[in-house]
Amino acid sequence: MILAGGASSRMGQDKASLLIEGRSLVERIADELQKAGFEPFILGGRPLLGRHFIPDETLGSGPLAALRGFAPPDGLVFVSSCDLPLFRSSIPLAFEEMLADFDCVIPRIAGSDQPLCALYRSSCWLPLRQDPPLRRVMDWVERLTCVKSDEPNLLAMGIQPSWCRGANTPDELHALLALEE
Q: Domain range spanning residue 140?
């Protein structure tokens, strides 16, 4: 799933529709997820032609509300924010290999967990729905058994840590894109 319903206030424009090499960020991420064998669902924001779309029930309620409103199919679910300009299909595939008996695989970049670029079992949605007082995505994640993949581990799997990083501001976006030049 791709979370695309944010206000993008720090970016100054809708992050999901930002164009990178002629394609919107959300379209690019959806294509990469499909390459990895995941059927992309767009949560919030605008529909994307040919993709499943679930509008936000309440605008501005944040990613946890969007996650809570999603009924995942049985199996594995890759959760992505819409602001990952360097996202690659190899990420969910590598995370699937790491999952073992855990609930989720989350990259840890520069000392911070990235739960919106992570692989989850569909069973993870049960505690999310049973405990509505949760306010942050990390409140949910802390209730799960997770493998946290740090930067050296990501690199060992052939994943550049920058591929898992979101861009919240124009400066962050330009810095990430400069890494690919």
A: 2-178
54: confidence class by pLDDT, cuts 50, 70, 90: confident
Q: Label the pairing between strands 104-109 and 117-121.
A: antiparallel
> Count of domains in the chain?
1
pLDDT digits (tens, 9 = 90+) for 140-174: 999 999 999 999 999 999 999 999 998 888 899 88
Report the DSSP beta bridge partners of residue 120. 77, 104
Q: Are 45 and 39 in contact (CB under 8 A)?
A: no
Domain CATH for 23? 3.90.550.10
78 strand-pairing partners? 119
DSSP characters over the chain? -EE-----TTTTS-STT-EETTEEHHHHHHHHHHHTT---EEESS---TTSEEE--SSTT--HHHHHHT--PPSSEEEEEES--TT--THHHHHHHHH-TTSSEEEEEETTEE-TTEEEEEGGGHHHHHH-TT--SHHHHHTTS-EEEEEHHHHHHTT--GGGG----SHHHHHHHHHTT-
Q: What is the rounded CA–CA span in Å between residue 128 and residue 67? A: 8
